């Protein structure tokens, strides 16, 4: 993609900022504006990337997926108030604010190059007018762009994703907004046809649904604050080291797995009781205890010699173990 250079000094400043922030050992000085310059340059690059994609879509249908959510933060706040005597007193402290974080992804399927995807990012918008549906949509539209406004003149699918709180009102407002948007001029289709080629789809957020189900279903089991803190630290540690685990798990299995003869029904029955007590699914219990005779003892992961396991949709084990 070629970008026309309007101001060479601005381009040089943005390039310097991006290269500086890309260094692993660099740091940002207190009064350095390189972060702001790099953010603005990145947003402009993403917009031009999307415009280039739309211009290169060769008539293929375009998809835009937009989502947003409120995020509470505590930020520094200072005020200067006048007393009845006329004396002004400065105060400083923390104030809670609600920010709306919105994002947008655009993609299409190129006949020769496959799926092409890009995104549009913008800074969070303060919800200074509250969290009503109209206020949320007004704040989100400050950063969102419709495919028509970006130059799309073919079939477009405008997809929106919100949590279920107020989703009915948000869907009604966003459909009204699209209905009132100007229709671009097209040599191939008339205005009425272009209106029919724009589809607006609203779906609830699956992540919000899953999180709410998790919270409501396990709330009674999550009252121990120290236990929750330990779980959080453990999960965070695993997430931060996921790349290390993935890169080493193959060699760990090769060095750790060993095979032994079948241990008999008494051992299998004890293992069944153990896995069942841990809440495992019955099919999974049978797989671990009877088919694999899986156990970790003395630093070795033991598997029954001759065990054969194939993948099925209701099984958590992939591949096969045969020896």
Describe this structure in words.
The chain is 40% helix and 25% strand. The chain has 323 residues and is of the alpha/beta class. It folds into 3 domains: 32 residues; 143 residues; 77 residues, no CATH class. Strands 1, 2, 3, 4, 5 and 6 form a 6-stranded mixed beta sheet that branches. Strands 7-9-8 form a 3-stranded mixed beta sheet. Strand 1 and strand 2 form a beta hairpin. Helix 3 crosses helix 4 and helix 9 packs antiparallel against helix 10. The longest helix is centred in the first third of the chain and has 22 residues. It is extended and about 80 Å long.
Produce the secondary structure layout.
Layout: H1 8-21, H2 34-55, E1 62-82, E2 88-110, E3 114-121, E4 125-126, H3 133-140, E5 156-162, H4 167-179, H5 191-196, E6 198-204, H6 206-218, H7 225-240, H8 242-256, E7 257-260, H9 265-277, H10 282-291, E8 295-297, E9 300-304
Parallel strand pairs: 1-5, 5-6, 7-9
Antiparallel strand pairs: 1-2, 2-3, 2-4, 8-9
Helix pairs in contact: 1-2, 3-4, 9-10
Query: What is the percent of helical residues?
Result: 40-55%
Overall residue-averaged pLDDT value: 84
Task: Provide the structure class.
Answer: alpha/beta
Count of DSSP strands: 9
Distance between the termini: 54 Å
What's the order of the H and E elements?
HHEEEEHEHHEHHHEHHEE
Number of helical runs?
10
What summary fits the major beta sheet? 6 strands, mixed
Shape: extended
